[in-house]
Amino acid sequence: MLDEEHEEQLQDSLDPNLYKLGRIGNHNVVLVCLPAGHIGIGPAAAGAIRMMSKFKSIRFGLMVGVGGGVPSAESDIRLGDVVISQPYKQHSGVVQYDSGKTGGGGKTTRTGSLNAPPKVLLNAVSQLRANHYRGRSNFATHLSIFNQLPHFSRNTAGPDVLFEATYDHGQEATCEQCSKERVISRTARRAQEEVTIYYGTIASGNQVIKDGATRDRLSAELGGVLCFEMEAAGLMNDFPCLVVRGICDYADSHKNKAWQPYAAATAAACAKEILSLIPAAEVVKTETARELHKYHIPFSLKGVPAGKFADRPQDTEVLEQALLPQKQERRRRILVVHGLGGVGKTQLAAEFTRRHQHGFSSVFWLDGSSDSSLKQSIAACASRIRAGQVAETSRMYTSGQGGDLDAVVADVLRWLSIPNNGDWLVVVDNVDRDYRQGEEDPDAYDVDDYLPKADHGSVLITTRLPHLGQLGERWEVKKVDDERGRAIFAMWYGREVGQMESDELLGLLDGLPLALAQAAAYMNETGTSFGTYTRLYKEQWKELMEPQDGEHMPLRPLRSYSNGSMATTWMISYTAIRTKNEAAANLLLLWAHLDNKSLWYGLLAASGRSAIAAERTSVWLRGIAYNEIEFIKAIGMLRSYSLVEEMEDQTGYAMHPVVHQWALHIQNDGQRAELSRVAIVAVGLAVPDIDERKYWETQIRLLPHAQRCGKSITEVTNDKFEDHELDGQKEENNALLWAVHNLGTLYRDRGKLDEAEKMYMRALEGREKALGADHTSTLNTVNHLGVLYKNRGKLDKAEKMHMRALEGFEKALGADHTSTLNTVNHLGVLYQNRGKLDEAEKMYMRALEGYGKALGADHTSTLNTVNHLGALYKDRGKLEEAEKMYIRALEGREKALGVDHTSTLNTVNRLGILYRNRGKLDKAEKMYMRALEGFEKALGADHTLTLNTVNNLGILYANQGKLDEAEKMYMRALEGFEKALGVDHTLTLDTVKNLGNLYMYRGKQDEAEKMYMRALEGFEKALREEHTSALMTVNNLGGLYANQGKLDEAEKLYMRALEGYEKALGADHTLTLETVSNLGNLYVDQGKLDEVEKMYMRALEGYEKAIGVENIPTFRPALNTMWALAFLFNRQGKVKDARTLYLKALSGYQKVVGDDHPKCQTLRNNLATLGKEGDRISATTKRELARTHSQSQTIVASSARHNPSTSRKHKILKILGLKRT
Question: Half-sphere exposure of residue 269, counting CA atoms within 13 Å on the CB side?
Answer without folding.
Answer: 26
